[in-house]
Amino acid sequence: MRDPWVRGLRYLKGNLFSCPPQEALAHCISEDCRMGAGIAVLFKKQFGGVSDLKAQNKKTGDCAVLRRHNRFVYYLITKKKASQKPTYESLKQSLVAMKTHCWENSVASISIPRIGCGLDRLSWEKVSVIIEEVFRDSNIRITVYSL
Predict the structure, then answer these.
(1) Can you give the residue ranges of the Macro domain (predicted)?
(2) Which of 62, 92, 99, 120 is catalytic?
(3) R_g of the chain, CA atoms, integer Å
(4) Which of 58, 62, 79, 99 is catalytic?
(5) Which of 1, 3, 6, 118 is 20 to 30 A from 57 in CA distance terms?
(6) Residue 126: pLDDT above 60?
(7) Cβ contacts of residue 2 below 8 Å, gap of 6+?
(8) Catalytic annotation on 120?
(9) What is the pTM of this model?
(10) Between the CA of residue 4 and those of 8, 73, 85, 107, 124, what are the distances in Å?
(11) Average pLDDT estimate for 91-98
(12) Domains identified in the chain and CATH numbers
């Protein structure tokens, strides 16, 4: 079977949490680290660390990080409060911050859901282009999972 790569992103159907254990994971959250809805609830249940995330005191456009089971888990801070919606610009800034951490820590691959496109209502057509642009000059492989 051919690898399902499209413009620098690999698309797979399945459970994000079944990705290879060495791959980093990423998703979007708010500065308040509430993670009370959507896939964020599953990240909170799977990896905990809410107090560690809050202690990092990251702001919109930053990326908070946990180290879990020999992998990094990235929390893209795309909005101030859980009740708000992110912007494409805040998502892009968070992705750039994540890419910098990846480079500094030799992260080669990241698995993500369709970030920003569930409860946050951004357009995957636009988000995927932003991801492609941010990671174009890197060797970091991004796998996008959907159910």
Answers:
(1) 1-147
(2) 120
(3) 14
(4) 79
(5) 118
(6) yes
(7) none
(8) yes
(9) 0.94
(10) 10, 24, 30, 21, 17
(11) 98
(12) 5-146 (3.40.220.10)
